[in-house]
Structures are given as C-alpha cells and as structure tokens.
Amino acid sequence: MSTNFLCSPVVLQQPVFRPFRSSNLAMATCVHSSGTKAPPQTNPSIGDHVFDNYVRFCRPNLPDTVSCAPISEKKSKPQIVNPNERAEDLWLRMKDEARSDVDQEPILSNYYFNSILCHDSMENALANYLSMKLSNSSLPSGTLYDLFLGVLTEDREIIFAVNDDLRAVKERDPACISYVHCFLNFKGFMACQAHRIAHNLWSKGRKILALLIQNRVSEVFAVDIHPGAKIGRGILLDHATGLVIGETAVIGNNVSILHNVTLGGTGKVSGDRHPKIGDGVLIGAGTCVLGNVIIEDGAKIGAGSVVLKQVPARTTAVGNPAKLIGGKENPIKLDKMPSLTMDHTSHISEWSDYVI
Questions:
Q1: Share of the chain above pLDDT 90, in %
Q2: How is the chain split among helix, strand and coil, in percent rounded to 5?
Q3: Is 26 inside a domain boundary?
Q4: How many of the other CB atoms lie within 10 Å of CB of 335?
Q5: What is the distance between the alpha carbons of residues 87 and 101, in angstroms, rounded to a whole number?
Q6: What CA–CA distance (Å, rounded) separates 126 from 132?
Q7: Is residue 15 part of a domain?
Q8: Taking the chain, what is the end-to-end CA distance rounded to the nearest angstrom?
C-alpha cells in the first residue's frame, strides 16, 4: 500500500447549489454543491411553493442538527459555511471520537490507528478503508488505494458529499452513536462512497474499472448500484442489504432509502429506463420502484410497495400496486420532510383498518 498519506491543498471557490427538480429530469452530476438561498417564508399554510423552499432549506450543508419542524416554524437565516472548513471540522471530530473509543476499548487501538488516527484527512482514510474492504488476492489494496485517493483528491465534490452523508446518517439513524461509528461500521454509507468513486470513473469513460468496483461492492456489501446512476448528497442507505439501483436512476438530495429496495427497470427496454427520485424522499424497506417514473420532492413510499407510476410531491404511496393515501383526487399532503423525520407510520389509520 502506498505510504503517501498527504495530499496537496486544493483552493476552491464557493460552489453553486442546483437542487434536483422533479419537473426537470436532467441531472448533470452525481453530487450537488451548496450555495446561499433566501430564508423560507413564514406561512402557517404549507403550500407547494413554500414546500419548495423547505426542501432547499433542509439541505445537508446546514449545521449538524437539521430540524424537521414545519416551514412555518423556521425564522432564522441559515449561516453560510465554507464546505472545506466543515469537512475539516468533521474530520477532526471523528479523530476525537476514535481516541475516545480507544480509551474505552484498548483492544481496538491498532484497528482505529490504521483506519482513522494515522491519516491526515478524510480522503486518505476513506481511500485506505475502501481499498482494504474491496481488495482480494488478485486485486491488491495498494492498487485500489492509489486509484481511490487519486479520484478523491481530484474531485473535492465527492468529499463534500461524503461529509453530508455522514451527517445524514448521524441525524436520522438512532442506531448511529458517532460519526466514526458510521464510517467504520455502516456498510450502506461505505457502499454509497464507493459508488461515488465508481461514478466518477464511469463519467470519464473508465467503465471497466467502474464496473469492477460495482461488482466488488455487490460482493462485499450486498449493495448493487450501477456506476451510471446519479446520486445526490445527504443520503442515508439504512441497513442497505439487498439494495439495487439501475444505470439511469437519479436520486436527489436528502433521500433516505431502507434495505431491499429496488430502483429498477420493467424489462429489456434500453435507454432512460429507471426511476427518478426527488429531494427529501423516504423509501421504505422492500419497496420496488420500476420504470422511468418520477417520485417527486418530499414524497414517502411505504414499506413493501410496488410503484409503477409517478408519485406527486409531499404525498404518501403504499401497497401493491401502490396507491396514494387520501386518494388520487385529493391525496393527503405531508408538511414535514419524510426523509428527515423517518416516519413510516403516520396516517396509517387513513388507509388501513388492520388491528392486532
């Protein structure tokens, strides 16, 4: 393995945030950069245009704790933070958490040193940890480390997305006790970061390498994401086992997806054939979303559903085949971001009389 754990500093201008819009299916990159936005308007009635502002307000480039209160309770303007500074702050916090863990469990000192404490940056540690996880007897970890570090050093947008994903997992998953715990032990997080590297290679025409990484991630983490798929920031892949995402799928920002979810096609159709998932969407376990259909911003898909048609913004779809809670003509509208609340059972009385 390469012993060069230092990288040259990168000077960046503040990037411009372009959120995923359900009305526009084109997404140029797999990660989105952040920027300044006007604060949300105060209005006790949650209309569609106000919810659009809410989607942007709850971007993962805000402080660590993102409130899930309705937009009417938001009053302060979000603070502008340099993404490079935020990434460095989170990395230092992870190292502090690692030292604390070693104090509690000295038996893990060598593991934490090699995985976290001996590295000077997030990209070094991520390249090292992924290379160790995905290597095998014919694919040395040193070779993978050099490849991964080169991509992460060149494309800082990936590191910004990595930090947003870490915060998303810590905020939304009550099983996550620390950032370093997520980094080392959550395979959904690690599979997502491996995909970001694979997508970078795919976009540059290095498709053989990208597909190799996809295959190793599938074998090691039981997560199969085609390197052509485009994935935003602030992503939670909870448990992640059995997750399948097709080549032309697009996933927006602040999306939460549970295990055994398929974002797939409907047959042998070629071209653009996979789902488009908007910002703030929550997809429950065991769900299949099939075909080139749109799940609009802030929608929620109940566990075990089969979705074959477009789901409007801020609505809940459940069942096989999936139906909208409240009916197609007047569906119940959500006033909170489902991917942040992680609420899988609200309005259950509206559609089910099941009683234990």
A1: 69
A2: 40, 10, 50
A3: no
A4: 16
A5: 21
A6: 10
A7: no
A8: 57
In a domain, 321, yes or no: yes
Number of neighbouring beta carbons within 10 Å of residue 224: 18
122-165 residue pLDDT tens: 999 999 999 999 999 999 999 999 999 999 999 999 999 999 99
Q: Which two tokens stand for residue 193?
A: 């970061």
Q: What is the CATH number of the domain that holds 122?
A: 2.160.10.10
The two structure tokens encoding residue 49: 């245009």
Say how far apart CA 148 and CA 41 lie, in whole Å.
42
Q: How far is CA 257 from the centre of its chain?
A: 8
- Identify whether the C-beta of residue 183 lies closer than 8 Å to the C-beta of residue 163: no
Q: For CA atoms 109, 187, 239, 161, give the dihedral sign.
A: positive
Is residue 47 domain-resident? no
Nearest-angstrom CA–CA distance, 5 and 125? 8
Q: With contact defined as beta carbons under 8 Å apart, do 41 and 51 qualify?
A: no
146: containing domain? 83-347
Interval 316-346: pLDDT, tens: 999 999 999 989 999 999 999 999 999 988 7
Number of structural domains, the chain?
Answer: 1
The residue among 100, 148, 140, 103 whose CA lies nearest residue 121 is 148
Asked if residues 347 and 325 have their Cβ atoms less than 8 Å apart, the reply is yes
